[in-house]
Design brief:
Shape: elongated
GO biological process, one term: response to antibiotic
InterPro entries: MdtA-like_b-barrel, MdtA-like_BSH, RND_pump_MFP, YknX-like_C
Helix content: 25-40%
Protein name: RND transporter
Structural class: alpha+beta
Oligomer: single chain
Keywords: Coiled coil, Signal
GO molecular function: transmembrane transporter activity
Distance between the termini: 58 Å
C-alpha cells in the first residue's frame, strides 16, 4: 500500500513539472504582433525655400570707346532711358580738326591720282616708244597715288568713327546708375561711365542638388516638369507672379554638387536689383513616403524592417525630403509591409504577426 502511495505521489509531481515546462515553452515561442504600413509611391508636392539674390535679367556697363573731355551729361542716376538715347557728349574738336586736315590731304591725293592715271593711260598708248624703265615708273607712280588715296580714306573713316563715339548712347532700355565722372573730366577709351539695369525682368539662381536634379532635369530642359516658383519678400508677402526657367547651366559645380538654374520673373515694380528674397519652389514627383518612426538610423546606414512571409527582414534605404512626420525613402519595394513600431523587440528572421 505504501509503495502505491509513493508511486502516485511521484507521478503527480512529474505531471506537474511537465505542465510547467509546457507553459514556459509556450511563453518563449509567443509570436510578436507588429503594426505595418504598405509602401506605396504617390505623387507628392514638395515646397522648398531658398534664400536668393535678385538680379536684373539685363545689365550693361556704359563704356567710352574713345578719348575726350566730358562736356555734356544728358541723363542722371535713376532716369529711365531707351536704347540709342544720348547720354553723354565728349569734346570732338580735336577729331574734327584731324578730319579737316585729312580731308585736305585727300583732296591733294586725289589730284595726284588723277595726274598719275592720265600719265599711265598715255604711257599705255605709247609703250612701243617707251623704255621698260619708263613704263615701270609710270605704273609705280599710279599705284602709289592709288594707295595714298586709300590710306587717307581709311584714316578719315577712323576719325569719323571717333567723332561718332564722342556721343555716347544707351546700349539697352533701362534705368541708369550713378555716373563715375563729372563734366570736365578726361575720359579714356575703355573707361566705365555708369551702368544701365533693365529690371522689367529679374532673375534668381536656384542651385539644385544632384539627387533632386536627376529626377527632374530632363523634364526641366523640355519644359515638362511639374515645377513652379514664386518669390516671397522680406515682409512675408508672396508675389503671385510665377517664375519661368530661363536657363540651365551646362555643368554641375564640383564644390557644391549642384547645378545652377536661372528662374526669371516679370517685375511689377516691387523688385530691385540686389534685393534678397525667398525663392519658393513647388515641385511634384512620384515619391514613397514612410512614417519617420519606421526609419531606423544606424552607424552603417538607414534601414527599415519589413515583413516577408511572416518574418522580419531588414531593408537598407536612403532618405530624402521630410514632409511633417513622414520622409521620402528610396530602396523599398512597392507594396512592401513596413513595420512602424517596436523595433527594439525585433530581430531579423523572427516570426511576427501583423496586427489587425
Amino acid at each position: 500500500m505504501k509503495k502505491s502511495l509513493i508511486s502516485l505521489t511521484l507521478l503527480s509531481l512529474l505531471c506537474g513539472c511537465n505542465s510547467d515546462v509546457g507553459t514556459v515553452a509556450e511563453m518563449g515561442s509567443a509570436t510578436v504582433t507588429v503594426n505595418t504600413v504598405i509602401a506605396q509611391s504617390k505623387t507628392q508636392q514638395f515646397i522648398e525655400s531658398h534664400s536668393s539674390l535678385i538680379q536684373p535679367a539685363e545689365q550693361v556697363e556704359v563704356i567710352s570707346r574713345t578719348q575726350g573731355y566730358l562736356i555734356k551729361t544728358h541723363a542722371k542716376a535713376g532716369d529711365s532711358v531707351k536704347k540709342g538715347q544720348l547720354l553723354y557728349e565728349l569734346d570732338a574738336v580735336d577729331y574734327e580738326i584731324s578730319k579737316a586736315e585729312l580731308d585736305s590731304q585727300l583732296a591733294i591725293a586725289n589730284t595726284h591720282l588723277q595726274m598719275a592715271q592720265r600719265e599711265y593711260a598715255r604711257a599705255q598708248q605709247l609703250k612701243e616708244s617707251l623704255s621698260l624703265q619708263e613704263l615701270d615708273e609710270v605704273e609705280t607712280n599710279f599705284k602709289l597715288a592709288q594707295g595714298q588715296v586709300a590710306l587717307l580714306e581709311r584714316q578719315i573713316d577712323r576719325v569719323q568713327l571717333d567723332i561718332s563715339r564722342t556721343k555716347i548712347r544707351a546700349p539697352i532700355n533701362g534705368v541708369i546708375g550713378e555716373r563715375s565722372f563729372d563734366e570736365g573730366a578726361l575720359i579714356n577709351a575703355g573707361q566705365v561711365l555708369n551702368d544701365i539695369v533693365n529690371d522689367e525682368q529679374v532673375e534668381v539662381i536656384l542651385n539644385l542638388d544632384e539627387k533632386k536634379l536627376l529626377a527632374i532635369i530632363d523634364d526641366l530642359r523640355q519644359g515638362n516638369a511639374d515645377f513652379s516658383a514664386r518669390l516671397q519678400l522680406i515682409d512675408g508677402t508672396t508675389l503671385s507672379e510665377e517664375g519661368q526657367v530661363s536657363s540651365i547651366d551646362n555643368k554641375v559645380n564640383p564644390n557644391t554638387g549642384s547645378l545652377a538654374i536661372k528662374v526669371q520673373f516679370t517685375n511689377q515694380g516691387q523688385l530691385y536689383s540686389g534685393q534678397y528674397a525667398q525663392l519658393l519652389v513647388v515641385r511634384s514627383a512620384d515619391s514613397m513616403l514612410l512614417p519617420q518612426q519606421a526609419i531606423i538610423n544606424a552607424p552603417d546606414g538607414n534601414y527599415v524592417y519589413t515583413v516577408v512571409e511572416g518574418k522580419v527582414a531588414r531593408q537598407d534605404v536612403t532618405t530624402g525630403t521630410a514632409l511633417k512626420d513622414k520622409r521620402v525613402v528610396f530602396g523599398v519595394a512597392e507594396g512592401a509591409q513596413v513595420i512602424t513600431h517596436g523595433h527594439s523587440r525585433l530581430s531579423v528572421g523572427e516570426p511576427v504577426q501583423i496586427e489587425g
